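User: Teach me something about this protein's shape.
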Amino acid sequence: MQGDHGNEEHLSGRDCRQVLDDHFACRERGDLDADLARNYAEDVVVLTPQGCHEGHAGVREAASLLYEAVHHQDGYQYSSIVTDDRVALLEWSARNDEMEITDGVDSFLIEDGLIQVQTIRYTVTYADLSQAKEASGL
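Assistant: First, the predicted structure itself:
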C-alpha cells in the first residue's frame, strides 16, 4: 500500500490552516468519516462544556450534540479564523428557523497534520421557548 503511505506523509506535512480548510470541506460535504480519517488524531481530545470527548467516537459524540441543536450540516458562518503553526481559533455562528448560535468558538491544537485537541463552546438561543425547554429536558 505504497499509495496510502504517501498519502499519510502528504497529510502529516500539512500546516495548521490546510488541516482546518480540509476539516471545513469535509464537514460541508457532510462527510464526518473522511474528516475523522484525514484530520483527527486517533487519540484526539475534544472539550466542551458538556464534558471531555475522547478519540474518534468522542468527535462523533460532540458533532452529534451540535447537530441536534442546529439540525443541519451547512449554514455555518465563520467570522474569524486565526492560526499560527500549531494553534487555531475559529469564531462561528449558525442559524435556522428554530434556533440561533451567535457565539460559537472552537480552538484547535494541530500537530503532524492532525487535530490533536479541539475545544468547542456555543450557546443555542431558540426562537420558541418550548423548544428550549425540550432541549434542556424541562
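Now, about its shape. The two ends are 53 Å apart (CA to CA). The chain has one domain: 2-136. If you'd like, I can walk through any region in more detail.
User: That's plenty for now, thanks!
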